[in-house]
Design brief:
Layout lengths: L1 H27 L2 E2 L11 E2 L5 H13 L5
Antiparallel strand pairs: 1-2
Helix pairs in contact: 1-2
């Protein structure tokens, strides 16, 4: 049950934080601008992937014994 709770908590927090990081990337101009070698045709944020590893570690730290 703890693993399911951890998974759902990670999923929820990731869904919340990715748009937040995307907005920060736009404000900070941390965008990947397409060029001749790019596959995409419009600017993409570069820091959206930071949310995933950070969020994966957070619930595990909270669920550790003595972490309450």
């Amino acid at each position: 049950m703890i693993l399911l709770t951890t998974l759902l908590l990670s999923l929820f927090i990731t869904m919340v934080l990715i748009p937040v990081f995307k907005n920060y990337a736009v404000r900070l101009h941390a965008m990947d601008i397409p060029n001749g070698r790019s596959m995409h045709t419009f600017p993409r944020p570069k820091i959206g992937g930071i949310a995933m590893p950070a969020v994966c570690l957070f619930p595990f730290c909270c669920c550790l014994p003595g972490g309450n």
